[in-house]
Specification:
Strand content: under 5%
Number of domains: 1
Largest sheet: none
Number of strands: 0
Distance between the termini: 74 Å
Helix content: over 70%
Number of helices: 2
Radius of gyration: 25 Å
Length: 66
Amino acid sequence: MLAWVAGQALLASPTTKKILHHGKDIGLFLAAPFIGLAYAVMLPFVGMALLAWVAAQALMAKPVQA
């Protein structure tokens, strides 16, 4: 309970909010290359899965000829 009250009092300060905002920006700046790398690595797999999904849907919609 005491930590909650102390945290609320700390967040009431505009300086603390500014520091936390800059900390978030720095964290996102440092994480951005890794997020981009994850997108680049996963893109072919997602594309192949999408292609397989569309092909499966097309095969299921095609009427069977006897």
